[in-house]
Amino acid sequence: LQVIARHSAESDGIVAVNPGVEITFPAITCSGRRYVSHFLQAFPLVMGYAGQEAQSAIPERRWFVDRYKRILWEDVEANRPRLLLVDANTGRWNLPDTMSALTWLRAEGFFRGDGPGRDYELVERTVNRIAVFRRRDRAD
Fold first, then answer.
1. How far is residue 97's CA from residue 132's CA, in Å, rounded to a whole number?
2. Tell me: the pLDDT tens digits for 25-53?
3. CB count, 10 Å around CB of 98?
4. 3-state SS, one letter per residue, for 60-119
5. Rounded (5°) CA angle 76-78-103
6. Considering the entire predicted model, what is its pTM?
7. Under 8 Å between Cβ of 18 and 85
8. How far apart are CA 40 and CA 129, in angstroms?
9. What is the pLDDT of residues 75-120, one digit of tens each?
């Protein structure tokens, strides 16, 4: 909760990219910030990658991951949340040992060039391994 207050105002929007809600959602709810994504959690990543040895989606479930990616990208572009709370824990939720929501975003180009995360910078990592990204305004 303190990290949210430190990096945002009450009127700011937030998006969490986390296969579960146990870490991010109590804090978001208590902070009074708006949640500005269609997805409460990144469970489509679990559906697409569970049990895999590497960060390669199960072919017959790839559509689920692709749909999640498209909607998440659109949500961030349209709503421009001030904060992104991204799970950096690897090997959870039966995902490959080297995969986290953060490694997935990076591999998919979220933070590069024309990706929706291009205007965000890492400002903090919490003790629960949540990577906190803050949107850089043009004046920042």
1. 22
2. 888 999 999 999 999 899 999 999 998 88
3. 11
4. HHHHHHHHHHHHHHHHHHHHCCCEEEEECCCCCCCCCCCCCHHHHHHHCCCCCCCCCCCC
5. 15
6. 0.93
7. yes
8. 18
9. 999 999 999 999 999 988 889 999 999 999 999 999 999 999 999 9
